[in-house]
Amino acid sequence: MNYVRNAWYVAAWSHEIEQGRPFAITILDEPLVIYRGESGRLAALEDRCVHRMAPLSLGRCEGDRLRCMYHGLLFSPEGRVVEIPGQDQVPPNARVRAYRVAERHSWVWIWMGEAERADEALIPPAVGLDDPDYILGHGHLDYEAEARLINDNLLDFSHLSFVHANSFGAGPEFAETQARMTPLERGMRYERWIENTLGSSSRKSDEPMDNYMTYDFLIPGVLLMTGGIYPPGTAKGCDYGVPDGKPLGGVTFTSQAVTPLTAKTARYFFSWGPHRDHGDEAMRDALMQLAGVAFAEDKVMIEAQQKVIDRTPDPRVMPTAHDKGVTMFNRLVERLARAEAEGNRDAA
Ligand code: FES
Ligand SMILES: [Fe+2]
């Protein structure tokens, strides 16, 4: 799979990892067990006992350690075997791989690359469910499709005019005109103004307004989007860039993360809701309902697309003008993945 490994992947919502209950997930084809020990500390280990390869996710938490419940080997949060029932000596190399794990913005993030390179400064600045400024709902969705296809979808919003014409009520603007795309060090930025609009299903106004939306799409596949409505003329006044003034309303925030599970499956995590000054719990619920419909529309299209790709002997794409963001991001992934592969070769 062509994905960057030296990156933080969302493995779960924080609340999904309950104290004392091992949680199993496969990321980049690697089966993992994540557990929260008695002290609250999170650990992530390879989900395969060194003894006879039973899954540690069927194990039992003991303090901050995890016991394989087949024949009882006890593992430390660092993956070392610290006890073998009925045997005095533990071989020094008795260990499973431990992954760096961090809890931030209501998500549990796992570093899938070399542990020494793990840098928490690279965790994308998502907005957590406990953020005081936003009232957020959340969810996740499993895909029978490769993560890359979901990333591609999130990098080309021209599909809004077609896939989401009814749900989001997106007009033809998304397909008929280009958004502004700027490369970032670990991703790309999308900015779009829609002038003199009454808005869409998620952001309505009574009089024509200028509607601004912007998102960053960051390695490994994290979308962070916000926007709002502004007085008419704002878009032109700032030359279709970042508005200086405060928005009149309609400010929401959505954090979304695409995690490759196996080569052909992925998990899509999302939260969405209004800024506290521009909405309430009822609005959050309305947005989540809308998201439920819209994300199901994406899933139908992308899973069907995956099937066609799978039965095509030599699948090739024909990029259009709207693929700028897709191309920009995929080139970045290729560049980083290649640098990792070369780094590993040099180190070998
Ligand atoms: S397989 Fe884990 S203790 Fe035997
Ligand atoms: Fe979509």
Structure explained in plain terms:
- It is a single chain.
- By secondary structure, the protein is an alpha+beta fold.
- Helices cover 21% and strands 35% of the residues.
- It is built from six helices and 17 strands.
- It has helices at 147-154, 160-163, 173-176, 234-237, 281-310, 324-347; strands at 8-13, 23-27, 30-36, 42-46, 60-62, 65-67, 74-75, 81-83, 98-104, 107-111, 137-143, 180-184, 187-200, 203-218, 222-230, 249-262, 265-274.
- The strands form three sheets. The chain has a seven-stranded antiparallel beta sheet with strand order 11-17-16-15-14-13-12.
- A hairpin with a 2-residue loop joins β5 and β6.
- It is elongated, with a radius of gyration of 22 Å.
- The mean pLDDT is 95.
CATH fourth-tier homologous superfamily of the largest domain:
Naphthalene 1,2-dioxygenase Alpha Subunit, Chain A, domain 1
Apparent shape: elongated
Radius of gyration: 22 Å
How many domains in all? Answer: 2
**Major sheet summary line:** 7 strands, antiparallel
Query: Beta-strand percentage?
Result: 25-35%
Bound molecules: FE2/S2 (inorganic) cluster, fe (ii) ion
For the record, what CATH class of the largest domain applies? Alpha Beta
Structural class: alpha+beta
Spatial arrangement of strands, main beta sheet: 11-17-16-15-14-13-12
What's the number of extended β-strand segments? 17
Oligomer: single chain
Tell me the distance between the termini. Answer: 20 Å
Element order: H for helix, E for strand: EEEEEEEEEEEHHHEEEEHEEHH
**Which topology of the largest domain does CATH recognise?**
Naphthalene 1,2-dioxygenase Alpha Subunit, Chain A, domain 1
List unreliable stretches of 5+ residues: none
> Could you report the average pLDDT, rounded to the nearest whole number?
95
The helix tally amounts to 6
Amount of helix: 10-25%
CATH architecture of the largest domain: Alpha-Beta Complex
